[in-house]
């Protein structure tokens, strides 16, 4: 099996166009047509991780954090980024990152954190805007089922987590006149035709648009396909940042802090002043989630569990919520477990390993 088989599957679950503008998810080093030997999963891609891949016979490293965030102008080993890339190239090891695109999907990084905390009734904390589009296409009655099925098979018609193959269909007729040089499926050159047609409307995400159009062209009988594409203001409830959910039973704040420390395997938690009330609703965001504080407050969360808070940003809690900073690595450490489960479930016939290296650059003295 080739590396691209794994990449294509991961990008079905977390499309690259869902990554943030500053990100660099995707295949960073290597050839997607290379045959896989073994896969090594890590939160970070470092020189030590690449060496571990060499030692264990892995030729694909899948990390959450990209080793390259900005352009490299020279490759002379002056820093750890250049040295890591050089080592990977020298040893023909592909480096792939699945970062904020995995943060922005249900079942991704933040779902894993919520699961570790046993949160129920989970939902995206803040939906990602400008994700949904609508296709309207006009199809002769004889080919309605064929075209509609092709659109569904390409991924259109999914609404929420529990409904797919959704469409709206309106009967009408279309008119057209084939001109010289055309090859009409229906009608004669120079004669206006009126054909009974169905207007099919389906919602889809931007990430599948190219695939959807190719499927439409292949299934539609007309030489020139009539269709419209629209941007939608609707929110994609399964796509966005952070997660919100409820504890199965309310807890005292001190008990929740102990629960948080145990379940996320934390050394320390930095937090704002406790509010003297029960904790029922919890918002989470792996990594630097401060941008979601407003959404956490609006969602009615009692605690906001995230990382990378600066001193003055803690004041923004303003006695409305408890901010709990767990540390960046600590908040995302279970992403390795998540990726391992995703890959081994889909591809059980080759070896998938998780790194034995602690890539957390922050150490604690106690």
From TrEMBL:
Homohexamer. It comes from Sphingobacterium puteale. A divalent metal cation 2 binds at residue 64. Belongs to the GTP cyclohydrolase I type 2/NIF3 family. This is GTP cyclohydrolase 1 type 2 homolog. A divalent metal cation 1 binds at residues 65, 103, 328, 332. Pfam families: DUF34_NIF3 (PF01784). One of its GO terms (molecular function) is metal ion binding.
